[in-house]
Amino acid sequence: MIIWLNNNFVSLEEAKVSPFDRGFLFADGVYEAMRTYNRKLFRVEDHLQRLNRSLNLIEINFTGTDGLEKIIYELIEKNNVKGEAFVYLQITRGVSIPRTHHFSQSQNPTVFITVNELEDEPEKRANGVKVITDEDLRWLRCNIKSLALLPAVLSKQKAVNAGVEEAILVRNGFITEGTHTNFFAVKNNIVYTVPESNYILSGITRKVVLQLCNELDIKVKEEFIKAEEITSFDECFITSTIEEVTPVIEIDEQIIGNGKPGEITKRLQAAFDKLKTIL
Ligand code: PDD
């Protein structure tokens, strides 16, 4: 496997990161996850814009965002990725020796990119998935795609242990999002999703779905949903770069709608599929 690390393509065996890297010591960094369709990066401008936003919000000075797209395509070539690629990109603030909480403005960020063949699971999109709810114990700046994911990691593990796909997080009685997905619900043909705020990551797939709703004349309300009301909704679905639009058919063992992917969800999936093919 070839990765991009600190301005070089290197083999995994050669790759070296200092134990004093602030990513390792403090989870002091941000990341992006993207994918290709027909071997072209999907919404790459949006991902790189979000990366810049995350970097700015945590005050990492990195000026190389414009060069990343070319590096990613080269990495896909070098790794001989067949089919579609998944791309993981992380930037940490760099090394602090000795370890200090504060940082210097002249830190040299550590850039790491890896690609692998994407494993698509279309049956989940076709049949829908089950989820649980869990308390949202994350910090209050969830709009930053921070490397510090421990609360999300623990909630997702709870979901795995419960034999379901995702944990939907609840803060003060209101749904925020999934551990690695945005959440949508449908009632009386209106699509509801949480407004952009510090309580959620502004998902690129979320943005695409809102554009599709607009094109399909589906009414949208960006508002918070009470967790206790969720089973009264006709349909639910989650979105992410990997999951695309995935129907949710059961929450905490309670069936949503008729226990099958809903009509609006299916219309959005079809529109999303069309978008993929015209790339
Ligand atoms: N997760 N919300 C959270 C908390 C996320 O981590 C993600 C993405 C999303 C969906 O965003 P997008 O549509 O841009 O993929 C929402 C990535 C895939 C991850 O952590 O691997």
Rounded average pLDDT = 97
Q: Give the helix level as a range of percent.
A: 25-40%
Low-confidence stretches: none
Q: Element order, helices and strands?
A: EEHEEHHEEHEHEEEEHEEEEH
What is the strand content? Answer: 25-35%
Total domains: 2
Bound molecules: N-(5'-phosphopyridoxyl)-D-alanine
| Biggest pleated sheet | 9 strands, mixed
| Rg | 19 Å
Q: Write down the CATH class of the largest domain.
A: Alpha Beta
CATH architectural type of the largest domain = Alpha-Beta Barrel
* CATH superfamily descriptor of the largest domain: D-amino Acid Aminotransferase, subunit A, domain 2
Number of continuous helical runs: 7
Could you tell me the number of beta strands?
15
Give the structural class: alpha+beta
Global shape: globular
Description:
The protein has 279 residues and is an alpha+beta fold. The chain has two domains: 2-117, Aminotransferase class 4, branched-chain amino acid transferase, N-terminal domain (D-amino Acid Aminotransferase, Chain A, domain 1); 122-277, D-amino Acid Aminotransferase, subunit A, domain 2 (D-amino Acid Aminotransferase, Chain A, domain 2, Alpha-Beta Barrel). 27% of the residues lie in helices and 30% in strands. The protein has seven helices and 15 strands. The protein has helices spanning 22-26, 44-57, 68-78, 122-127, 150-161, 204-215, 263-277; strands at residues 2-5, 8-11, 29-37, 40-41, 85-92, 110-117, 129-135, 166-171, 174-178, 182-187, 190-193, 219-222, 235-240, 244-251, 254-255. Strands 7, 8, 9, 10, 11, 12, 13, 14 and 15 form a nine-stranded mixed sheet that branches. It is globular, with a radius of gyration of 19 Å. The protein starts with a strand and ends with a helix. The model has no long low-confidence stretch (mean pLDDT 97). The chain binds N-(5'-phosphopyridoxyl)-D-alanine. The site of N-(5'-phosphopyridoxyl)-D-alanine has 14 residues, from helix 6 and strand 13.
